[in-house]
Amino acid sequence: QLQLVESGGGLVQPGGSLTLTCTASGSNFDDYDIAWFRQAPGKEREGVSCIANTGYPTNYANSVKGRFAISRDNIKNTVNLQMNSLKPEDTARYYCAPYNPGTCQYYLGPAAVSGNYGQGTQVTVSS
User: Fold this and answer.
1) Residue in 115, 101, 117, 126 with CA at minimum distance from that of residue 36
2) Chain-centroid distance, C-alpha 97
């Protein structure tokens, strides 16, 4: 089974940037689409972005389109989420999780997760 570890979170001012990394081990990384989720206190977990096992296609929540970019490296077993023009409403704990291949093209949400989430990494956008 795939094990995932998120890193790269932190405190950033509004308008700033961060890059989150999801690092995988334990299984065939390129057999899985990978998705990023976030959860703010008192809110449900929501899908942010996902990327197919081959690297294309990708999918983004409307709230982050044009500001976030997802990419993957199937040699290094990593998925990066580049986050630009960050807003206070982006503040949340961010998680990555696997999807079965082919899922990301049609769906972005927690219901299709086919494995375990990582422990998450906290992103706080505040002045």
Assistant:
1) 117
2) 8
**Rounded distance between C-alpha atoms, residue 78 and residue 75, angstroms:** 8
What backbone torsions phi and psi does residue 75 show, to the nearest 5 degrees? -90, -45
Residue 27 has pLDDT above 80, yes or no: no
Cα 124 versus chain centre, distance: 15
At residue 26, the pLDDT reads 80
- Residue 53 has, within 13 A of its CA and on its CB side, a CA count of 12
- Exposed/middle/buried for 86, CB within 10 Å: 0-12, 13-18, 19+? buried
Cβ neighbors of 56 (< 8 A, separation 6 or more) are none
Strand partners, 78: 23, 73
